[in-house]
Amino acid sequence: MFAICVTFRIATGQMEDFMPLMLDNADTSKKREPGCHRFDVLTDADRPDEVFLYELYTDSAAFDAHCDSAHFKAFSAATADMVVSKDVTSWSTVAS
Fold first, then answer.
1. Any idea where the ABM domain is (predicted)?
2. Strand 83-92 to strand 2-10: parallel, antiparallel, or no bridges (unpaired)?
3. Separation CA 90–CA 67 (nearest Å)
4. Which of 14, 34, 57, 71 could connect to 28 by a Cys-Cys bridge, CB 3.0–4.6 Å?
5. Helix ranges restricted to H, the chain
């Protein structure tokens, strides 16, 4: 398996507009991408301008397909001005 962790920092006052787009992207990824096994969207009340994603794919090729999908590109374009920073890390399974 191939895991992706993303931390978004959202511009002040933009979370209300960002979150529905994020949730739609996650839902569409799970429904339309056979290589997407998990797409969790998490927040913490102590960090109100951050969103953390945990995504699990079959392999890096499945993640690449996600990044090339029309819905991901539309999400990225729609939220570009809302995102202050985005940190992405990837992890591959060594043992389970």
1. 2-94
2. antiparallel
3. 14
4. 71
5. 15-32, 60-68, 70-79
